[in-house]
Amino acid sequence: GDAVQEKREKQTKEDQVQQDEEVSNSATQNVVPEESKKKIEAQSRENEVAVKEKEIQEEQVGAQTEIEGKIEEDKVALIQKQETVQEKQSESDPIDNRSEQRLEKQDQKLSQQQSREEGSDCLLYTSDAADDLLCVDLGGRRIIQKK
User: How many Å apart are CA 127 and CA 147, to the nearest integer?
Assistant: First the structure.
């Protein structure tokens, strides 16, 4: 019986040593994982921040693209409205357009005539003033000199 009991005690001691080694290993393993857990948590936070920044950038690009699209649509609509207004004006006012063209032609003719006549100015005198040239001012009035 003593041999069996010695075996049991020896087995118990071996089990105790093994448990102590496991406890010490787990303690050192727990220390290392705590540090690595902190590093992993910090990296995961950085990754989350980077993902959120990318999402925000994508949203901004999407919003900017949407705004640019709306601006282009508005430009096209404005151009179409201007064209329809011009068409309506030209359809409803053909007489006005013709009269404007006539007026422009008349203005051109008058300006051409004026440019031809600019070199030849003449004064017009009344018949009464023409008889007495020395006593007439430019307005055709008589100048009476006191003696």
Answer: 26
